[in-house]
Amino acid sequence: MTETRPYHHGDLRRTLLGAAAEAITENGPAALSLRDLARRAGVSHAAPAHHFGDKAGLLTALAAQGFGYLADELDRTRAAGGGVLEAGVAYVRFAVAHRAHFAVMFQPELLNRADPELLAAQDRSSSALRDAVATVDRSELRGADARIAGLSAWSIVHGFATLWLSGALPPDLGDNPEDAARQVIRPLFARG
Amino acid sequence: MTETRPYHHGDLRRTLLGAAAEAITENGPAALSLRDLARRAGVSHAAPAHHFGDKAGLLTALAAQGFGYLADELDRTRAAGGGVLEAGVAYVRFAVAHRAHFAVMFQPELLNRADPELLAAQDRSSSALRDAVATVDRSELRGADARIAGLSAWSIVHGFATLWLSGALPPDLGDNPEDAARQVIRPLFARG
DNA sequence: ACTGCTAACTTGACAGTGACAAGATTGGAG
DNA sequence: CTCCAATCTTGTCACTGTCAAGTTAGCAGT
Questions:
Q1: Which residue of A34, A66, A127, B191 is 20 to 30 Å from A28, comparing CA positions?
Q2: Residue B1 in domain
Q3: Distance between CA atoms of A155 and A145, rounded to whole angstroms?
Q4: Which nucleotides of strand D are protein-proximal, with an atom < 7 A from a CB?
Q5: pLDDT tens digit sequence for B92-103
Q6: Strand D closer than 7 A to residue B12 Cβ
Q7: Which residues span the domain enclosing B116?
């Protein structure tokens, strides 16, 4: 990652990414405006283009950052001795804590899919995901092919996170996403 | 719909919804342009506003249509005697067949959440979903609270559909979403 | 110190867009 | 036949993303 010290502005790149995350958290990715970000950062309207090329470039950088954060979160959970269930909860925790990043990470039409930085970050989080699933006791996932089991786990946590963030889940689940996730995910792993 | 060419264009509303679905399927919701839709339909740039108010109105109508289609699909599967697993597969089939609708249905920031037509359609598909889950044999979902079990099922199919559509799943899953879904969903229901 | 050099930013312009207001056209009810 | 309300058009505005060209700042080498 190219670190810049305060030239004219300071580090505009990081500032813009932060402002973008904030704006997306508030109004979603569709409403994001580069000019608005520039305004928030106190620079001219064309400044963002210099760092990210275009809008897709900015969102790609955000997505890459998101995959990095996700990998961090999963690694941290694993280091703490958590199993698959806790990795799943960590996935949801990440999605809720960084909803702007999450909202962009799985919308390829918004991104430069071939961006090397993005691909690297995706790779890192894929590995972290794979490692998390590898810790599963075979009996927990009832004899299924490990590869399929991993996809089942990924699907259920990804689905829960998406539905939670979209507000589609019933309100009687409470307002703690991690607890709710734990309940909903458990049936995949609990023994019969 | 027979081939008509009315000067006042007959059913613009339906035509625009169709064009919108097509455009979103191609380029995603973010790239959608009302003026482009108007061009495709051969009307003036301001015509869509009359039927939908604004962009959010159009997307809301699309989402409502999508919830209707989803309810239809689930009802059809249930009428054919399918269980929860097949309902799940039907959910995925719907998402893939109507990816434009699906892409919009769970992005509240693009919609008028309070639109009565939308709420009614959501209600209908919620009921269909609930009915589908209600057919589950208690032993299939291993003693979990039925309410939680339903959310688990919803999460796993929704997550699978989302990941499939975003192209995030590994390519060795094949190119048949229904077969792949069946494999990935099964671990939730299979007996220990 | 001064000379270039390059990255970081600005200024200015252009085509497209969503939204609104006001006018035109139509089918149909009375 | 008249009139009206729904449908659609025209014109306009502020705003957006992107590009081209210019400006400023840090820095290395002499």
A1: A127
A2: no
A3: 15
A4: 7-12, 15-21, 25-27
A5: 999 999 999 999
A6: yes
A7: 54-189
